[in-house]
């Protein structure tokens, strides 16, 4: 009987549609509405076109998608903050939502008083709140401030208290919208651990998040919403990988369009300046570095920074998978090939060069860096046009990373140095955490434990 109830649907969303009126310019007062009727023009924006899904009791489901796709609207429909235009939503059990943290808090009331007020909104009786009060206070780590007015709290303290109330109401269904960044690092870790405990106890969880790592660690299933429709659902690691790949492609196409506009504008400016006096040769040499900074080729990120003398210049850069296809999303454990092409302006004057690359996480953590001289104790004989490849096994854990490339002379002078030349993302089927994956072997009483398949 228990096994049957476990499979029972806790949430049923059936052919739900939702639109909003978006006013172009709405008069605020009665006088403005009467005199300026044209200001009441609006457009109907269809946010959810027709979505259907179910969530089983005790299952954790993640909702992903770009901003404006309908994720948060779906969550607000589940909490009954909003109601659908058509279709039905059925939820079984007590619902706790972590959408607008602190909604219902009164600034002049103490933290303790607000716990009672906020918990009662979630449906708890005074007796139930009394039994949970100390647990909520302990979890928030605000005991010394709990009897102070909430208006004296910092924003972090305010969020801690709100999260602590919502997470400790013993809900059957927990709805979470982008709030796992509450408080400092230690408190975030505690919140994440608490969610895993709640899931283990059988609570049904629906999470909206842009953090693929959180989705993959907590959720059993992932639903990708795009333009108000469900584009894909399934195992989080696979859906996330497809989503990241498409988002990266869209971003690159947008940056390429912006770059073309900038180049077109630069060409027009050059044509307009054609009648001016020609720049002296010595000024051209002095401006070589500035020129390399300003003109970024198509293979560079828009945010890239280019330095160097320009005597050797990169003409192409690509990250390739094992099949030689250019990619922007890799998995932990993949073999990656970095292919660089270059042009040497005067090979006879610059016979040797040292090529290197570096990888940085998006928060600027330097993950790795090396070059030809470090790896082989040699230098590259430069050609008028040449190609360099380096292959490496990707041990990075999920996240977004940037690639730096450089080539410099024996005396350390940089011919070309492009920071953040390309961005790429990493996904993983593993549950370990940190920056990179270390190959580990466990031994218990001298006996090696067997590795999981694929480890």
UniProtKB/TrEMBL annotation:
UniProt region (Disordered), positions on chain: 255-290
Keyword ATP-binding among record annotations: yes
Gene Ontology CC terms: membrane
Keyword annotations: ATP-binding, Nucleotide-binding, Transport
Compositional bias per record (Basic and acidic residues), positions renumbered to this chain: 255-273, 281-290
Taxonomic superkingdom: Bacteria
Example of a GO MF term: ATP binding
SMART domains xrefs: AAA
Pfam family for this entry, one: Wzt_C
Alphabetical list of SUPFAM superfamilies matching this protein: P-loop containing nucleoside triphosphate hydrolases
Domain ABC transporter: 30-252
Similarity comment text for this entry: Belongs to the ABC transporter superfamily.
Protein name (Swiss-Prot/TrEMBL): ABC transporter, ATP-binding protein
């Amino acid at each position: 009987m228990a096994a049957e109830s476990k499979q029972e649907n806790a949430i049923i969303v059936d052919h739900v549609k939702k639109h909003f009126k978006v006013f172009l310019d709405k008069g605020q007062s009665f006088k403005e509405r009467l005199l300026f009727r044209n200001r009441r023009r609006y457009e109907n924006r269809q946010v959810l076109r027709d979505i259907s899904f179910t969530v089983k009791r005790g299952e954790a489901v993640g909702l992903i998608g770009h901003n404006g796709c309908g994720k948060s609207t779906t969550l607000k429909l589940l909490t009954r903050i909003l109601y659908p235009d058509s279709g039905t939503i059925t939820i079984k059990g007590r619902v706790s939502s972590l959408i607008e943290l602190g909604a219902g808090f009164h600034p002049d009331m103490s933290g303790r008083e607000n716990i009672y007020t906020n918990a009662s909104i979630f449906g708890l009786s005074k007796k139930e709140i009394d039994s949970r009060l100390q647990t909520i206070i302990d979890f928030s780590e605000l005991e010394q401030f709990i009897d102070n007015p909430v208006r004296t709290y910092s924003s972090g303290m305010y969020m801690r208290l709100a999260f602590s109330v919502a997470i400790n109401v013993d809900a059957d269904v927990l709805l979470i919208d982008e709030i796992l960044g509450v408080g400092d690092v230690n408190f975030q870790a505690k919140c994440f651990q608490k969610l895993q405990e709640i899931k283990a106890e059988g609570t049904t969880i629906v999470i909206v998040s842009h953090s693929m790592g959180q989705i993959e660690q907590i959720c059993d299933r992932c639903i990708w919403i795009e333009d108000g429709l469900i584009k894909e659902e399934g195992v989080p690691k696979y859906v996330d990988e497809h989503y990241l790949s498409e988002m990266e492609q869209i971003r690159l196409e947008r940056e390429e369009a912006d770059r073309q506009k900038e180049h077109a504008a630069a060409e027009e400016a050059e044509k307009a300046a054609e009648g001016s006096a020609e720049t002296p040769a010595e000024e051209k040499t002095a401006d070589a570095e500035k020129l390399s900074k300003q003109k970024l080729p198509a293979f560079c990120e828009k945010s890239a920074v280019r330095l160097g003398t320009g005597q050797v210049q990169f003409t192409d850069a690509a990250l390739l998978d094992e099949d030689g296809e250019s990619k922007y999303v890799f998995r932990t454990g993949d073999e990656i090939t970095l292919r660089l092409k270059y042009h040497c302006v005067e090979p006879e004057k610059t016979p040797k060069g040292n090529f290197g690359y570096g990888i940085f996480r998006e928060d600027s953590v330097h993950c790795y860096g090396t070059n030809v001289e470090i790896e082989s104790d040699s230098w590259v004989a430069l050609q008028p046009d040449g190609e360099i490849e380096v292959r490496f096994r990707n041990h990075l854990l999920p996240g977004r990373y940037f690639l730096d490339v450089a080539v410099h002379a024996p005396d350390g002078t940089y011919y070309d140095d492009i920071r953040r030349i390309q961005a790429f993302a990493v996904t993983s089927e593993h549950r370990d955490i940190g920056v990179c994956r270390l190959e580990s072997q466990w031994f218990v009483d001298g006996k090696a434990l067997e590795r999981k398949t694929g480890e």
